[in-house]
Structure formats: structure tokens, C-alpha cells
Specification:
The protein is mainly alpha-helical. The protein has one domain. The protein is 63% helix and 0% strand. It is built from 5 helices and no strands. Helix 1 (3-15) packs across helix 5 (95-125) and helix 2 (37-43) packs across helix 3. It is globular.
């Protein structure tokens, strides 16, 4: 899958997260994907500052599959796709950004898989 296709896939996944994930509107989201000029100066460039912001937001990626917690659905989490698209446009070869796209896709796909399993179990019980 090309980088642009993977970014489109990520956006689609995040815009359509399962209803089992709590919805937050733009005013109540716990996510904020922005960096200040001071952050950019401290980390050397915008992509480095964004990488740090993502590490702070999602925590360290200790899971060997790169799974990070996605705690809500709605415009807050969807904004990360826009941020990653801008980072990719600025530096298509940035391995850190590619890894975040991959990890977030895997994380969203895991939520879908978990929901599918719960739906099957509920259907068997009823």
C-alpha cells in the first residue's frame, strides 16, 4: 500500500470507529494534535515536535505490534490523520511519521477486530 493509500485508510478507519468506542465532539475531546513554535524550536523541526507530541499523547509504544490506545472516536482523533498527512507532505521519507501511520492503522484495526468478536459472541447468546 502506498503512503497516500495508507493515510487514506487511516482516515477512513478513524472516521468510522466502532460505536463501542466512546464519542467525543470537538469541544470535549481529550486529544489535541498541535505543536507550538517553541516546540518546533526545542525539537529542531515540525515533524520532530509532532513525533514528541504523539508520544506524549499516546504514550510509549511498548507493544511489539505498535498498538497504541485509542480512547475515543470523533473529530478529535480524526485530526491526527490531517496532522500526519501534513507531516508526510513535508517529508515523505520521515520514518517516524510512517511508523505512526502504521501503528495508528493497526490500533484502529484492532478495535474493529475486538468489536467483531464481541458482536459474534452476542449473536451466539441471543
Amino acid at each position: 500500500m502506498s503512503q497516500n493509500q495508507q493515510l487514506a485508510h487511516l482516515r477512513h478507519l478513524l472516521e468510522n470507529l466502532p460505536d463501542t468506542v466512546l464519542y467525543h465532539d470537538a469541544q470535549s475531546t481529550g486529544y489535541c494534535f498541535s505543536v507550538s513554535d517553541d516546540d518546533i524550536e526545542e525539537y529542531g523541526d515540525e515533524n520532530s515536535a509532532i513525533n514528541h507530541m504523539l508520544e506524549v499523547t499516546f504514550g510509549p509504544r511498548h507493544d511489539t505490534n505498535g498498538i497504541v490506545p485509542i480512547r475515543e472516536r470523533g473529530p478529535g482523533i480524526c485530526a491526527v490523520a490531517t496532522v500526519l498527512e501534513k507531516c508526510t507532505a513535508a517529508d515523505p521519507a520521515d520514518a517516524r511519521i510512517k511508523l505512526w501511520v502504521d501503528n495508528l492503522c493497526r490500533s484502529a484495526e484492532k478495535l474493529y477486530a475486538e468489536t467483531e468478536g464481541k458482536v459474534r459472541i452476542l449473536l451466539l447468546v441471543t
